[in-house]
Design goal:
There is one protein chain. The protein is mainly alpha-helical. The chain has one domain. It is built from 4 helices and 2 strands, in the order H-H-H-E-E-H. It has a two-stranded antiparallel sheet with strand order 1-2. A hairpin with a 6-residue loop joins strand 1 and strand 2. Helix 2 packs parallel to helix 4. It is elongated, with a radius of gyration of 22 Å. The model has no long low-confidence stretch (mean pLDDT 90).
């Protein structure tokens, strides 16, 4: 049985996790909307290029700058929903404890990878902000530094989600061990 203080802590953690889930769902929505906008730009560019011999200026630069940002806006939500590509070939051969141990290891590696990605991306994002980094010349110059900050944000959110997954995997591993012993 949990004490009142422990229950308050657990309640606060649950509220924080709910807020986090809504936040990454919102970012994923923005990323999805961004994908649709980019698709429209590409269609207008292609139609303009082949039907009127007049492509939409700056489309390649805009697409190049957007792709990474769209992915990093959606990654944490996709991970939370457990929708990343994965192979179940080996997973079917493992016991529930083995599956939980693999998930634990994968989450630990994910935390480490995205922590370092977040750390190293911060310096590039900050430098890009200081010099107002742009791509493209002439009629359309696309700012790159916002996408660099989105990489930092997305990497940080992936760290958080991998930590949450790590806790779930640890809990599943403990429960599966108890079932084997009991």
């Amino acid at each position: 049985m949990l004490s009142d203080k422990q229950q308050k802590i657990m309640s606060s953690l649950a509220r924080g996790e709910n807020w986090y889930a809504r936040f990454i769902r919102w970012l994923s929505f923005i990323g999805t909307f961004w994908v649709m906008l980019i698709m429209m730009f590409i269609v207008v560019d292609v139609v303009g290029r082949y039907a009127f011999n007049s492509p939409l200026t700056g489309t390649p630069e805009l697409v190049r700058a957007s792709i990474v940002a769209m992915v990093f806006l959606q990654m944490a939500h996709v991970l939370r929903q457990n929708r990343h590509l994965r192979s179940t070939l080996l997973e079917r051969r493992f016991s529930p404890a083995g599956v939980a141990a693999c998930a634990l290891l994968g989450s630990l590696l994910g935390v480490i990878l995205f922590y370092f990605l977040c750390l190293t991306s911060w310096d590039l994002a900050w430098r890009g902000w200081l010099i107002r980094e742009y791509e493209g010349e002439g009629a359309l110059r696309v700012p790159i530094y916002p996408a660099r900050f989105i990489i930092v944000l997305g990497s940080g959110l992936m760290c958080i989600q991998f930590i949450l997954n790590l806790a779930r995997s640890l809990k599943a591993l403990i429960i599966s061990r108890k079932e084997v012993k009991g």
